[in-house]
Amino acid sequence: MVKNDRANFGSKLGVILASAGSAVGLGNIWRFPYETGNHGGAAFILIYLGCVLILGLPVMIAEFLIGRSSQANTAGAYRNLAPGTHWRWIGRLGVLTGFLILGYYSVVAGWTLEYIGEAVTNGFVGKDAEGFKSAFNQFAANPWRPMLWMILFMLATHFVIVRGVEKGIERSSKIMMPALFIIVLILVVCSVSLPGAEAGIEFLLKPDFSKVDANVFLGAMGQAFFSLSLGMGCLCTYASYFSKQTNLTRTALSVGVIDTIVAILAGFIIFPAAFSVGISPDAGPSLVFITLPNVFQQAFSGIPLLAYLFSVMFYVLLAMAALTSTISMHEVSTAYLHEEFNLSRKKAARIVTLGCIFLGIFCSLSWGALKGYTLFGMTIFDLFDYVTAKIMLPVGGFFISIFTGWYLDRKIVWAEITNNGSLRVPVYKLIIFILRFIAPISIALIFINELGLFKLL
Ligand code: TRP
Prior knowledge:
With 457 residues, the protein is mainly alpha-helical.
């Protein structure tokens, strides 16, 4: 069902900021540092950059062109472009993936609200590294508080979504993204000037390839897809709101660059600070919530007012970055239900919000009451993260490359990438080559490698 009255982003800047708003989120500031920490630092970052360049950007361009040419939600997109085929399952898989990610992402997003509260009420004052650690663990294990914050966060997301594409999504990104960038820069300066920060900087810049194994590649690939919002039709849905004048290649490059810069800068906030106060870099998902409050207290120990202001600002901005991302994931399912099942946007959004809260409850409890329930050694929360980021997104990316590179009519691909011939895109042939060969083969190799099949041979 193609609608002529489809919503649109109002401006070029709006397009970039909304897409970058989707990409920049907890993935950059919370997940990137702990994945880097778990996988040994600089070597992981190098492999990550390779994944962004070789897999991320081409797949992003593919998602953009699928979305804009079909003018539909991600499941409808494949139906429009490949009627009567099984390709529509890729779109449906994407909707499911986004829904699952939102289920655990909203839990962490909820934590940011608790930490805003702590910062505002001066709750960080007088705690040391141990104090922050036990405070976090106690909070996360509490059955009610994290759950209520998660619900509140989903309601905020819901509120923006029902306001629509231009008034809700675009306007909120235009305010939040520039603010985020400025505060990130300030925090980097604070963190690298802490005593003992050098060890953290070295961890980020000096690659130690002896730590690189199959796992590191899978981690880097998963993180690249996750951080760039790829592999589930999120940017595909956004691109369906792009205008015909939008330069897809350039937009992809801008989003990729902004997202990567924010992730690297987040590394420069967290690791110098973590090393400076003696917190292990592989502390995992809780890293940002334990290390950072400590940074503010230590960096400004003589000037409590600054410590206060920075803590508050940081968690407010972390929440905003998370919000522009939850909005984008919510939009995928909302647009799907709205267009495929003829529900009103409001009703569609309500179903998505309630469904995510339901999943979120389990993910939230898996830090406390349900901690003992594990599968393959992972809690429900970890399992959601692993299955979505490391399996479902790369599988989505694999099929998106194949679809664009092999199935889709080359005329459509060309018309979308060059805006019907009006743009010169010198890398056009390279993009096609990557989508046909490099991207699917690398994704497959990384999977085979992870499964240990090479060793068997
Ligand atoms: N990229 C976002 C982040 O870094 C999260 C996100 C939004 C996402 N939309 C997505 C991840 C789609 C995977 C797929 O926080």
